Amino acid sequence: MAKKLFIKTYGCQMNVYDSARMADVLAPLGYGPTDDPAKADMVILNTCHIREKAAEKVFSELGRLKIDRDQRQAEGNDMIIAVAGCVAQAEGAEILRRAPQVDIVLGPQTYHRLPEMVARATRASAARRAAKAAGVSRKQLPPRPGVLDTDFPVESKFDHLPEATVPQGVTAFLAIQEGCDKFCTFCVVPYTRGAEFSRPVVQIAAEARRLVDQGAREITLLGQNVNAYHGAAPRGDAEWGLGDLIRYLAETVDGLARIRYTTSHPRDMEDDLIAAHAEVPQLMPFLHLPVQSGSDRILEAMNRQHKVERFREIVAKLRAARPDLALSSDFIVGFPGESEADFLATMALVEEIGFAQSFSFKYSMRPGTPAAALENQVPEAVKDERLQRLQALLNRQLADFNRQMVGTILPVLFEKRGRYAGQLVGKSPYLQPVHAMAPDAMIGRIAMVRIDGLSHFSLAGTVTDETAAAVSVPAAGVFSREARA
Ligand code: SAH
Ligand code: SF4
Ligand code: F3S
To answer: Which intervals hold domain Radical SAM core (predicted)?
Structure first.
């Protein structure tokens, strides 16, 4: 009988990718997906540790799962419960101590070993069921062993993962780099994901071809520090940066219409990568480039290793290379020691640059990070108030950006059916959802769509040309800063 697997994913795109790969690892063991945890033979919580309350959310979810499992056991079934991801890495032992219902705790770098872990948990489950059937009382049942694997193994999980079996669809994620050596003083990622590591170009290209064979037309290259990529080149012992990798994928992977990458650090935004934005039409003119703050003093305290001026220079170069480029970013308000003047510098930078979309957060103290030990923490009420002001500005920029699309013609990659009969939903080059009437046969294809109107966060339009080139053509200058001012 086929076994059912339920995975709940928290956090960043890398976790989304990891969840897909865990499903791949478990498919040969007979596990297929379900979207109902109560029906699952195995549940994986793929967790995120980036901000507070993440761990608490995991524990309350585990409480709910225990109820589902008790119910399943009463019906003669069982459920393996696994906690994966960054909370598992940071607090693995604590999870097993506080939540004895958990069978498996595994970190982000060990999921290729899931089959062994599942085998151990399954043996333990079988032993318990046999004992129960033999009349052993609940208290005397053999314990669940609690498998813990939060190693940073020397071998790369990527060398041990099976080929992807669960198709990701028209748009797909591909991890090319993992981990982080930057140690921003607020951030847990270097501790939960480990040191920077880049996959070889050949391995990435093979995975990209498989994804395209399974129907992907757009691939987002992922890494915690994706533009620090430095992987082994296809021939010889050279290393390639991200710019060369993108050129290579664009040239050699037939049918790959769109390439994106995330998340970048301004420090690693080198000229060669910026040049790729001018050269490679498949590379979408939309870049997520977190700056965190507009104050040099705060950037320094955050250990971001660059000044505000450097960010301005990069943006200018990017816009020169690709005039239709739009930017998104991440911001933290209320970092320890942030004064009103520092915060106003962030607001001024946002006004100056103009972002199409952004994510903004209140600084959250993370155990074990240097910033958590700083004394001049900003009061919660001040953080709240600054976040509101920043978000009002960012939301206005988002609305302006979307509004200036009306009347333009954009290449749209259709992904799936919309809510209404005959309607499809796709994405613009700027990741805006676009609704238009189009036949199902257009799914997975790019059409030119005239944008007629806006609704909330999406655009509505009319297909003007179904045979648009697979590659989007820059509409020179239309979306540049000048046009928006
Ligand atoms: N590698 C990326 C970001 C990874 S985390 C980079 O270097 O930019 C995603 C975002 O979460 C960060 O950009 C930051 O804005 C936010 N973040 C990380 N740690 C945080 C913390 N302790 N408190 C608040 N926000 C945080
Ligand atoms: Fe975290 Fe900084 Fe690394 Fe990004 S660059 S993952 S914010 S330590
Ligand atoms: Fe969260 Fe880990 Fe990603 S902490 S943001 S899931 S790298």
So the answer is: 166-400
